[in-house]
């Protein structure tokens, strides 16, 4: 299974409809088809703020995971909402700093017409102690 397929298969991504399409060399892309269940407005499809946030966090994390091939939990995410999301969403992320224990990724979320919906910056934990994952457990899962 490829990294994009693995990330898309995460239960949360499956629940929201997030598809990771590219995750390689510190870069990732993904999309989300906006539906009524994503809306914050009854009777209209205007995405709840958590929808572009979840897409940005997932695609930012995918960019970092593409470098580390291990879990990289989110430490912090800052997002600026620039326009309401009313159409399908696409996101691009690039790792801008890959340090010893954390990495930083910048993410742009647009609608499928190209309008910018949000800009985000995520910080992800990239390692634990010697022989451990970022979650603090052993690398081999024991």
Number of separate strands: 6
Number of helices: 3
Give the termini separation: 23 Å
Shape: globular
User: How much is the average pLDDT?
Assistant: 92
Q: What structural class do helix, strand and pairing data support?
A: alpha+beta
Major β-sheet annotation: 6 strands, antiparallel
Any overview of this molecule?
- There is one protein chain.
- The protein has 142 residues and is an alpha+beta fold.
- It contains three helices and six strands; from the N terminus they run ααββαββββ.
- It has helices at 3-8, 11-16, 50-68; strands spanning 18-24, 27-32, 74-81, 89-98, 102-111, 116-125.
- Strands 1-2-4-5-6-3 form a six-stranded antiparallel beta sheet.
Question: Any descriptors?
Answer:
globular, 142 residues, alpha+beta, 6-stranded antiparallel sheet, 3 helices, Thiol Ester Dehydrase, Chain A
Quick description:
The protein is of the alpha+beta class and 142 residues long. The protein has one domain: Thiol Ester Dehydrase, Chain A (Roll). The chain has three helices and six strands; from the N terminus they run H-H-E-E-H-E-E-E-E.
Write the layout of secondary structure elements.
Layout: H1 3-8, H2 11-16, E1 18-24, E2 27-32, H3 50-68, E3 74-81, E4 89-98, E5 102-111, E6 116-125
Antiparallel strand pairs: 1-2, 2-4, 3-6, 4-5, 5-6
């Amino acid at each position: 299974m490829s990294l994009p397929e693995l990330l898309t298969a995460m239960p949360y991504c499956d629940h929201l409809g997030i598809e990771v399409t590219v995750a390689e060399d510190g870069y990732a892309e993904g999309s989300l088809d906006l539906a009524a269940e994503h809306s914050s407005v009854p009777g209209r499809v205007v995405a709840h703020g958590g929808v572009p946030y979840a897409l940005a966090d997932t695609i930012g994390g995918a960019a970092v995971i593409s470098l580390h091939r291990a879990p990289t939990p989110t430490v912090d995410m800052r997002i600026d909402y620039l326009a309401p999301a009313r159409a399908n969403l696409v996101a691009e992320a690039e790792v801008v700093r890959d340090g010893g224990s954390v990495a930083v990724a910048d993410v742009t979320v647009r609608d499928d017409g190209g309008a910018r919906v949000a800009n985000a910056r995520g910080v992800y934990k990239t390692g634990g102690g010697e022989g451990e994952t970022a979650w603090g457990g052993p690398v081999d899962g024991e």
